[in-house]
Amino acid sequence: MLLHYAQNSRAVRVAWLLEELSLPYTIKKYKLGDREMREESYKKLNPLGRVPTLEDGELTISESGAIIQYIISKYGNNQFIPEINSKEFPSYLQWFHYAEGMIMPQMNIIVVETIFLPPEKRNEVNLARANKLLSKMLDVVEKNMENKNYLTGEFSAADFMTGHAVIMSKNLGIDFSDKPFLESYIKRLLARPALNKAWSL
Ligand SMILES: N[C@@H](CCC(=O)N[C@@H](CS)C(=O)NCC(=O)O)C(=O)O
How far is the CA of 86 from the centre of ligand 1 (A)? Predict the structure, then answer.
């Protein structure tokens, strides 16, 4: 498997899973914003020129969540996915999708309004709204973590998605002083050697 990867991106989620499963893979490294990600050869693999993208033989697949589900189903013997009839299964689905559904849209706005746009084009109202909403989205995760080590109790594939999104929010400078359970959750995730490896590729 070849993973198209950039540091501090959602590609870390996929590398993290590959490391947890000890699967062999190679990476092609980009820097976010690289011209190389906009070249036609890469756009053939990922028309939006984004990461992650995974190549597996003839197959090319993008969307971090889809890649994670693909790898776990095909090579992971469904590890990190609660049994379908368990009470954890619906909760796993919810937290798996919460990252791209609720957290990342706000983070995208914050990144655009603070990094991508030149100062004269930035919009303070959009930024303040995204910050407020992101904090609200994180409060829901905080509440969930009150009595748990991981999002659904045991470590699951939901942690690759929403756990990573929580860490990215913290790295972006969101105030976590009122989110002690998320602070300990982040520490717990960062203590996993597989995540450390994935983060520093
Ligand atoms: N929903 C997609 C989002 C992919 C995405 O936006 N990736 C970002 C990095 S985290 C990217 O490649 N950005 C480069 C750009 O926008 O030019 C996923 O989960 O894989």
Answer: 32
Burial of 62 by CB count in 10 Å (0-12 exposed, 13-18 middle, 19+ buried)?
Answer: middle
Domains of the chain with bracketed CATH: 2-75 (3.40.30.10), 88-199 (1.20.1050.10)
pLDDT of residue 74: 98
The tens digit of pLDDT for each residue in 72-117 reads 999 999 999 999 999 999 999 999 999 999 999 999 999 999 998 9
In this prediction, the residues of the chain whose per-residue pLDDT falls under 50 are none
Is 10 close to ligand 1, i.e. is its CB under 6 Å away? yes
Nearest atom in ligand 1 to 32's CA: 14
pTM over 0.85: yes
Q: How far, in Å, from the CA of 62 to the mean position of ligand 1?
A: 10
